[in-house]
Every structure is written in structure tokens, then in C-alpha cells.
Amino acid sequence: MSTSSICHIVPEVCKAMIDCLQDCVQMPKNQEEWLQIVEGFEKRWNFPHCLGSIDGKHCILQAPANSGSDYFNYKSTFSIVLLALVDYDYNFLFADVGCQGRISDGGVFPHTSFCKKLYAGTLKLPEESILPGRTENVPYVFVADDAFALHKHILKPYGGTHENNSPKRTFNYRLSRARRVVENAFGILSSV
């Protein structure tokens, strides 16, 4: 779990959250642990090679003093962004909280420690392997929405509209189902 820029405003709260949750919010440490997540996504959500679901949630707050429009978001409220990676069973594997609401999920992501480790290749992800019924190795992926940039390990839906029963529409449906896990986890977190 990491924090972004709001910690200069409420450092005690951010530190307390990290101290309390650091044992609960942990990314896999090796390929075997990642493969357990992959197995869960395949069994429960019928989406193979999935390492987790990434998304951001705007957490509404009162505008911090002297912050101008930094925390004013596209929903016309003030917020900070909670960006998270969640496994197949709604468990948070990574969370970054505190980036100003004016910044999109895709804008927050590059500044997270998770993204930096992903791009540096230090997450100890499983080696590429063959999908059932195929012949070529493919990478394991994190599923995300359109706000995120494509990457070897980040998969997002095909853009545009697609005809019923087309391969792209079927793919988008299945990816959306796997990706909704993070949205559901945000819902569970909000209701507690």
C-alpha cells in the first residue's frame, strides 16, 4: 500500500492507514503466488492468464484549504483517487491512495510503485505460456478499462461498438466480467 500527494495534508491519517493495512494489502512475492491468482480468475471468472484487475475510485472529500481545483474531478466534486489491484476473490493486492481527483486513473497509474515495478520487470510475474487450444506463448495480464495504456501485461477492451456474437464483443464481455471484480471490491469497501 502506498500514498500519493494528499499525505502532506493529512499525514497522520495516511500513516495510520498504511500501518493498519500493510499486512492485509500485499502483492504476490513469486511466480507461484501469481499463478494461484491466475487459477482463481480462470475458475471463477472464466478469464485465463489474468493476474488481477486494476481500477481507480474517486473518494469524495471536502476541498483541502488552498488547493484550488487540484482535487476537483470530472464528476464536479472534490476527491482523492484510490487506485487498486484486486484478485479474483475481491482481495486488495495493491492500493495507492491520495492522488488529486483531477487526475484520471490512467494519469495516476504511472506514478505508482506498482507501475514502476511492472515496467521495470521486477514483479516476478510468471513466464509467458500457451493458452488452451493455442500454439503460441502469451503473457499473463492485468485487466483494466480504457483509462489505462496498453502494455504487454495490461489488457483493456477493444474500442468502439461491435456486432453481436463477434469475437471482439465476446472478448470485451469476458474481460469486463473479470475487470468488474475491482469495482465490486470498491463497493464492498464502501459498504463496510
Automatic annotation (TrEMBL):
Domain DDE Tnp4: 54-189
Keyword field contains Nuclease: yes
Main location: nucleus
Entry keywords, A to Z: Hydrolase, Metal-binding, Nuclease, Nucleus
InterPro entries with a match to the protein in the record: HARBI1-like, HARBI1_dom
Cofactor: a divalent metal cation
An annotated Gene Ontology molecular function: nuclease activity
Compartment list: Nucleus
A GO CC term attached to the entry: nucleus
Entry's family note: Belongs to the HARBI1 family.
Name the record gives this protein: DDE Tnp4 domain-containing protein
Organism this protein belongs to: Acanthoscelides obtectus
